[in-house]
Design brief:
Length: 174
């Protein structure tokens, strides 16, 4: 199978755009916690809207990944390669599961998603408070998992860049 040395431009652009959006997802809810009510409301609305944008981007990213040639496997032991694939795979799954679960529990609580105050998105579940609570719990656990995996991912990238000084980082840079 044909392989390339660097991620394609659309994959690189989407990776960094999504990294920024993930930072925004955490910042909005963390700052909202201690914010006055009007700000809390605005931040949670931004959280929901950015989350829907992320859902669209991850779908495009997965299609782009499947459609493009694979990047060369990294020069590392099979165990490290498997570990890095597992982290990337779980991150892709979570990036689908997080926005969907957010949308689902907001719907199950009978609340609205006012997409950037432009339009109201339809509910994807009927109102069901019990189910809403369970999905919200999943959303919170999933968010912690995203955080742990992103920290491990960034630490691995930093290890390659600063200690191993190999060209791994260049594969994802402009
Ligand atoms: C400062 C933050 C980040 C840095 C420095 C970074 C760095 C990198 C690098 C260098 C690669 C390429 C690895 C390789 O060539 O095998 C990569 C791939 C990847 N990154 Fe990041 N990343 C960051 C943030 C994120 C975030 C926030 C996410 C998602 C939550 C993410 C998800 C991924 C995924 C899924 C891949 C695999 C791409 C693929 O093979 O399809 N990254 N990252
Ligand atoms: C990748 C996407 C997402 C990530 C990483 C994420 C992350 C988070 C985090 C970290 C929290 C705080 C959890 C806690 O308090 O322990 C949270 C809460 C919440 N999320 Fe998300 N989320 C995402 C997508 C969405 C989407 C698409 C929606 C709805 C459309 C949504 C709706 C909510 C709501 C309503 C809360 C509760 C906020 C509050 O009132 O405190 N999330 N999310």
């Amino acid at each position: 199978m044909q392989t390339i040395l660097k991620y394609t431009a659309p994959s690189r652009l989407l990776h960094w755009l999504m990294a920024l959006l993930i930072a925004a997802m955490f910042t909005t809810v963390w700052v909202a916690e201690d914010a006055p009510e009007w700000l809390d409301h605005t931040l949670v609305n931004m959280h929901k809207s950015f989350g829907i944008v992320l859902l669209a981007l991850i779908v495009i990213r997965i299609v782009a990944r499947v459609a493009s040639p694979r990047v060369e496997p990294i020069k590392a032991s099979p165990a490290i390669q498997k570990g890095s694939h597992a982290v990337h795979g779980i991150l892709y799954l979570l990036l689908i599961a997080m926005p969907l679960s957010g949308w689902a529990f907001v719907s199950a609580f009978g609340r609205k998603i006012d997409f950037f105050t432009l339009t109201e998105l339809p509910a994807i579940l009927d109102t069901n408070k019990e189910l809403g609570k369970a999905i919200k719990e999943f959303h919170e656990i999933g968010a912690n998992l995203v955080l742990v995996l992103v920290i491990a991912h960034v630490a691995a990238a930093a290890y390659h860049h600063f200690l191993l000084k190999d060209k791994l980082m260049d594969r994802m840079l402009p």
